[in-house]
Amino acid sequence: MKWLGAALLGGSLLLPPFLAGDFYINLASQILIAAIFALSLNLLVGFGGMTSLGHASYLGVAAYVSALLTSRYGLGHGSAALISISGTVAMAAFFGVIALRATGLGFLMITLALSQVLWGLAYRMSNVTNGDNGITGLTRPAPFGISLDNPVAFYWFVLVVTVIAFAMMMVFVSSVFGSSLKGVRDQSRRMAALGFNPWLIRWITFVYAGFWGAIAGLLYVYYHKYIHPSSLSTTSSAEALLGVIAGGSGTLGGPAVGAALVLLLKNYASAYIERWNMLLGLVFLFIVLVMPAGIVPGFSKLMAGLRRGPR
Amino acid sequence: MSTSSGHALEVLNLKKAFGGLTVTQDVSLKIRPGERRLIIGPNGAGKTTLFNQISGDLRPNFGSIRLFGTDITHLPPYRRAHRGLSRTYQIITLFSGDTLEHNVSLGLLGLRPTRWQMWRPMSFYRDLATEARRALDSVGLLHLADHPISEIAYGEKRRVELAVALAQRPRVLLLDEPLAGLSNTERAAVKSLIASISRDTTVIMIEHDMDTALDLAETVTLLNYGRVIVDGERDSVIADERTREVYLGT
């Protein structure tokens, strides 16, 4: 059973470049990018119990910084990526100090407010960000001289990054630190009495999530070769949050599945119905009613039930 | 007044109010190293609120708290834990989805630098598991070490609470109603467990069950309406008229 699952997963990740057309390969790349983004948000939401509605900040800022540095200031992709990632991580460190003054709803509101500030800046500071027109004419990097301009090459690139991201986040949440993070999520008072510093644990996680948000942002801007303020919008944060919750927060695979679902709905449904958001809403309503813990925990429960046989 | 360093825990003129309601009024306690102190008083006397201030969950409005001569009044709870203060809770706050071993291991980790390890799982540290199991063995729960907390009985959870606290080898241990809700047999088991705590640990205990708790205590503090009413050797406090007044309402 486990092997079958692994084979299916491996197949669906490795085969698209050989079987599918460019449209689907591009769709697969987008799904992987959205999955990294959702996974990074899940560090906060699922493992840290910090529901953020501003995670797009890290994706958007990393994307904008890279876009500006490469297009306007003529920097190479390597140094632009480095500056973009370290800048975004520094921002996460700063935002974390502000947002973690509160927990729960207060935390959510602060993250939302901070991301709205950035979104507003991207819109209004048009002399820098080009405002509503976005920044166009961007290029993709060519690591080790390999051009990523064709969809297959780009897919492989994204896949490698995704595997690394997934592995690193898995190690993080399974580590000793990850255990204390979950402890702080469930009983922060008790954890403090045991000698753990809940604030610092949350803050480190916040910064780490910001780092992977930045990685997702770089891939995002490489893929689209274009960046628009909407990448910083609340909608962008909320879609990721929906993906995390629908897929199963606090699980490793859940957010990836949820992110894929959101993206597929967005791409397919919007071709047929104009109000695809409504369909998205209905699908989520269905998930919340039928599998309150999310798709992945829901299905594993279902499978466990089937194996035990009908009662 | 002598120097404060002679005491394990020293509470001086502590005051805490929630709005207009004063729950701790000018409370002072001096507890010697190794002492067994019982804190009694009717419901709402401010016993748990006092504990919460000692452990750092609540900040007092006034007064100071010293642990082995060091002022800890303004330290966050985790710093106090690192200075040797440990506590249990009246309402069980264990991690119910995790195993007994995991719960005790977390307690051990809290005081070790290993807790910041970000790429190795807990299972990598075998000594952690060994020590956690030893602590569970000491409370007679080794056979349940791999069971999740949610699967064990209430009385057993109380003992896990104790195991978590004792595994930390605290210098001062605060026990908030360790016998609450236990059956007679469990009560006897927990009682002998508390009686067996090393004298390196100072034990301060809130308990309603006087029959059991008085046997464990050397000194008793009676609180009422947030004030210390009587404070002293066990027998003198029991014999004191004011104790009878508070408890019998004469």
Overview of the structural elements:
The complex is a heterodimer of chains A (311) and B (250). Chain A is mainly α and 311 residues long. Chain A has a domain at 22-232. Chain A is 77% helix and 0% strand. In chain A, α9 crosses α10 (188-194). Chain A starts with a helix and ends with a helix. Chain B is of the alpha/beta class and 250 residues long. Chain B folds into two domains: 1-84 and 171-250, Rossmann fold (3-Layer(aba) Sandwich), CATH 3.40.50.300; 97-169, no CATH class. Chain B contains nine helices and ten strands. Chain B has helices at residues 47-55, 77-82, 100-109, 126-138, 154-167, 184-195, 210-216, 234-239, 241-248; strands spanning 9-18, 21-31, 36-40, 62-67, 70-71, 85-87, 172-176, 202-206, 219-224, 227-233. Chain B is globular, with a radius of gyration of 18 Å. In chain B, 43% of the residues are buried. At the A-B interface, α8, α9 and α10 of A face α2 and α3 of B.
Supply database-style keywords.
heterodimer; A: 311 residues; 15 helices; B: 250 residues; alpha/beta; 2 domains; six-stranded mixed β-sheet; four-stranded antiparallel β-sheet; 9 helices
Q: Would you list the SSEs of chain A in sequence order as H and E?
A: HHHHHHHHHHHHHHH
Number of strand elements of chain A: 0
Low-pLDDT segments, ≥5 res of chain A: none
Overall shape of chain B: it is globular
Cα Rg of chain B: 18 Å
What is the fold named in CATH at topology level of the largest domain in chain B?
A: Rossmann fold
- Strand residue content of chain B: 15-25%
Q: Using the CA coordinates, give the radius of gyration of chain A.
A: 20 Å
Describe how the helices and strands are arranged.
The complex is a heterodimer of chains A (311) and B (250).
Chain A (H helix, E strand, L loop, with lengths): L1 H13 L1 H4 L2 H26 L8 H16 L5 H23 L4 H21 L1 H4 L21 H24 L1 H11 L1 H7 L3 H27 L9 H14 L6 H19 L3 H15 L4 H14 L3
Helix pairs in contact in A: 3-8, 3-11, 3-12, 3-13, 4-5, 4-11, 5-11, 8-9, 9-10, 9-11, 12-13, 13-14
Chain B lengths: L8 E10 L2 E11 L4 E5 L6 H9 L6 E6 L2 E2 L5 H6 L2 E3 L12 H10 L16 H13 L15 H14 L4 E5 L7 H12 L6 E5 L3 H7 L2 E6 L2 E7 H6 L1 H8 L2
Helix pairs in contact in B: 3-4, 3-5, 4-5
